[in-house]
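Teaching note: in complex prediction, the entire set of molecules is handled at once rather than each chain in isolation. The prompt given to students was simply: 'Predict the structure of this complex.' The entities are:
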Amino acid sequence: MAKSPKISASHGSGGLIVHISGLLPSLSPAEQRVARLVVADPADAARRTITDLATAAETSEATVIRFCRSVGMDGYPQLRIRLAAEAARRIEPPDARVVGGDIPPGADLAQIIATIAFNDARAVEETAEQLDPAVCEQVVEAIGAAGRIDVYGAGASGFVASDFQQKLHRIGRTAFYFPDVHTALTSAALLGRGDIAIGISHTGTTSDVIEVLEQARARGATTVALTNFPRSPITEVADHVLTTAARETTYRSGATASRLAQLTVVDCLFVGVAARSRARTKKALEATAEAVRAHRVGPGRRRA
Amino acid sequence: MAKSPKISASHGSGGLIVHISGLLPSLSPAEQRVARLVVADPADAARRTITDLATAAETSEATVIRFCRSVGMDGYPQLRIRLAAEAARRIEPPDARVVGGDIPPGADLAQIIATIAFNDARAVEETAEQLDPAVCEQVVEAIGAAGRIDVYGAGASGFVASDFQQKLHRIGRTAFYFPDVHTALTSAALLGRGDIAIGISHTGTTSDVIEVLEQARARGATTVALTNFPRSPITEVADHVLTTAARETTYRSGATASRLAQLTVVDCLFVGVAARSRARTKKALEATAEAVRAHRVGPGRRRA
DNA sequence: GCCACGGATGAAACTTACTTTCAGTAGGCG
DNA sequence: CGCCTACTGAAAGTAAGTTTCATCCGTGGC
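The expected output is the structure of the full assembly:
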């Protein structure tokens, strides 16, 4: 896969918009202008002719065509139709919540809550929609068969990595997470064929994580990347790429939507692994639950 | 335009197919052939070019255009788009995701993903719905005014606590999180009036967290509990109670839904606090983002 | 029986939309 | 500084969509 990766828009119809916003950063400036128009109002874009859209994006028709190809379509007519279909599906009432955007300065808390929840839920849903089950399957397979599992992540993604590690550990898998780059590098150096390294980076550009994955790969381990941007650098050092679909645009939300999306993916993988070995998993979980029971209090009130 | 009935397709978008089959009998034979094709498989028709469709209907392009006009469209492209939209709408609403329940043993990954995402998204939405803006307001107020902010949480909730701490810290608030109970207790003992302690426990029964909150409260700090169970022990030591609405029933999902719900609440509080002091917040966020920039890589491709 | 009429239809001319090619330009790199 | 690469839009080329118009065919009048 040399030049144009031609990221498959995969699934029959779901998530074209999501797909596009994921690809957005990897597009050229002119194409980005087109992409932004399309994402902002798919229905409207579907109504426009190619010339019209090109003008609106202050570029040429040629660029629009390039954009179509970049997002995996054959040409403009196909894009148009898919866009129309997408737009029709998302019935969503155009209500007060500020979709994707920033919170308006004057917003009251109720409004803020509605907006955030909406965007967060969307991120989760859209991530699931565009997740490729085939890739998940391979990753689950690899995790299930791995001798050792290393999970890497820095900053916010570090929490997710840590969460993943803990989950795997709880069902009896040998998993590690390192908050520190140097330790992580050391660990990666000790991986080998049959082991698996999972790197989490929202932007896909976190050099620390990329470096560690690279190291792991060089040692023969299977590498997996979890990122929001399917064409970011981290994907170049990964055997399997899983993507989230958070369209976080602004500073506001402290990147929570992306976090939730990542956690969802992690959860899917986890359940996938767990489902593969019910008995063993269940036993391990019960044992670990028992272990913390002494730290629970309460007059009868607690859950399983 | 003497003849052309030009029956308006009126309805913003709904029922084009119905509309067409309604006036099918009034169409000329050649147009009927076209209409039948369209009604039989709208999605397929939308994919075809006008020439292609004409051939399939054993007629000429001109007739197809006439057909478009007959059913109230301006031309073929418009019909095409409307058809695509219709077709998209009339598929797959109720599918096989297993609501609320456990994952069935034989489930394939695609099913698992759909189920998890559905439940996760639900947890987020429902949590937001039942969140009391008034209570949030008070908590936001308290955080904004606090001299010091302690966030407590153990196990899975510890991640959330840590996340919250990090968020607050990033916008320039003095916030702490302690993974260790003893340290936490020590810290709580140093709190006083004007400080705030936030305890996170999904079950509301984690003795470690309750204990620490209790301590903080005794010292005069404002206490906040975040739990899924509004009548659990932790609520007894809290001035303000915020609840999540995860209905996790089974062992399966590693408690991710509850985690997401908690994170959503934390996010709302965070944004609430941030919104209160835009300037200060923005400046702090920019500074922190700048700080990690050196750890980002990328051949030209990066995001805004 | 013949002819005028009108609606229906497709061939072909025509217009517009879409696609490709190509050359100019700007930015990165040795 | 100059080569190289990637991005871009102008223009040429092709395909799709639309209009025009001649033909066909059935009908009804003379």
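Point out the following to students. Chain A has a mean pLDDT of 81. Chain A touches chain B through 91 residues (CB under 8 Å).
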